[in-house]
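Milestone M4 deliverable, item 7.
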Amino acid sequence: MSLVGEITGTLRPAPGDRHGPLAPLLLMLTVVTGLVDAVSYLELGHVFVANMTGNVVFLAFAIAGAKGLSIGASLTALACFLAGGLAGGRLGVRTGAHRGRLLRASVGAEALLVAAALVVAGVAGEPVAAGAQYTLIPLLAIAMGVQNASARHLAVPDLTTTVLTLTLTGVAADSRAAGGGGARLGRRGLAVAAMFLGALAGALLVLEVSLAAPLAVAVAVLALATLASQALSRSQAPWTAADGAR
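Output delivered:
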């Protein structure tokens, strides 16, 4: 398939696509990842709430005494992300047989958590006090854990919503130059672009407007995804069945 065909097929899946309309919705969640990680890194003590690889490294740096990093913030983010992953895993077990219902449940929960973070950010003001910081990090990290676990259950190739390392590896390792069958650059490129644009927008809003601004955008994106997933939860199309049930 051509590059343009891959991009078009990801943004507007054809009727009968085995993943239905999940791909564009997961791209929306990837944008949310960029937005919230911009907030957490720039305003909450140089910590990620979605990129746990970075947090493990930051934790090691903080233990070693690197300035500007916090052992407590990194540990909080890691623990709360795991809690969110646990919650997302339970949602996957309960609703994963119907992927539309799983998406509705997980995105709805995520939207509520990010909306709560928006309220806290609006009240806290700037600079963010430690108490508000340790309220925002758990809310956002739990939301990202739910999102990541649910994306794992949905199992749409190259759209994990929070991790790009394997996506970028696939671009190179699966390319024809490496002897592979094709890099699927269209879909993988869209995933990278969604994360980049979310992070860029989040950083600009944090630096030029306020801490709450990117969270408001994230809530708006999640609200749209929730409305879409509500409609999809009623579908009985073949794509709604988990792989094991097909």
